Amino acid sequence: MMIPVIDMKKFPGQYTEMLRASQEWGCFRVVNHGIPNTLLQEMKSVVKSLFDLPLEIKRRNKDAIPGSGYQQPNEANPLYEALGLYDIASSDVVQEFCSLLCVSTHQRDVIGRYARAIHGLGMEIAGKIGESMGLGDAFCKGWASQFRINKYHFTPQSVGTTGVQIHTDSGFLTILQEDENVGGLEVMDHDSSSFVAVDPLPSSLLINFGDIATAWSNGKICNVKHRVQCKEETIRFSIATFLLGPKDDQQVEAPSELIDAQHPRLFLPFTIKDYRKLRESKEMHAGEALSLVRANATVT
Ligand SMILES: O=C(O)CCC(=O)C(=O)O
Ligand SMILES: [Fe+2]
Fold first, then answer.
1. Is 226 in the pocket of ligand 1 (CB under 6 A)?
2. Ligand 1, from 185, 195, 204, 231: best to mutate by most atoms within 8 Å of Cβ?
3. Within-domain flag for 282
4. 12 pLDDT above the threshold of 80
5. What is the residue range of 184's domain?
């Protein structure tokens, strides 16, 4: 079984397939997405070198929102290391990240170009999802993107274990540039609840929908469950951009066009910040926290 592939050059012809994929799978691959393969490769090599920086430099990458900064391998998660920033839509934030890590002029240039291109692609895909539902593409204007680069140090002992536990992403959509050489990512097939391996497809990008997409779409879009399995003793890199949703005090709320007598409002309005807090405090990382913001639920 293969996850759907959406050709970004073939719109409007792909709207139906894009909507179907977001509802049935909660994920799809995009090809012809407009980000040159050279930029993907340049970014990948910059990412590798950032992890080679001395620990005291990496530690300068502090959290702007919980979990957005440097994550050092620790006892609970000895194989995993991450750097990141919030918000990739702000060139000032991107520049500050580069300055803190003392990157070279070339690396700064690559990170800046990647940031603009990947945030732009996230907005374009979100806009097309809106279009595919007849809502236009303006609803996601001003949304923020969190950015995270991941390094997995898979050891002989970790082969056969899970590198990233089963979870959904909390935001609206995630663009994942996977390791083109090392597989291991698996998504859950909604119908059978079985995991399907997502093998890397060079120069494509993977789109995953998260909890906010489910709430915003009044339950139409599937928040895909996924995990990373360790298949071999190796180093694996991935680059994730999370288009989160409305900023600050703005609330996540399904547009009125999606609500009618047959489709009553399923979720209470909530802010991203409150929702993320709820997910963390209840340790509900696989979409369960949505049940706590159901219109008919009482949050305890
Ligand atoms: O590393 C990957 O391929 C997936 C990472 C992931 O699911 C995440 O960062 O949310
Ligand atoms: Fe994820």
1. yes
2. 185
3. no
4. yes
5. 5-249
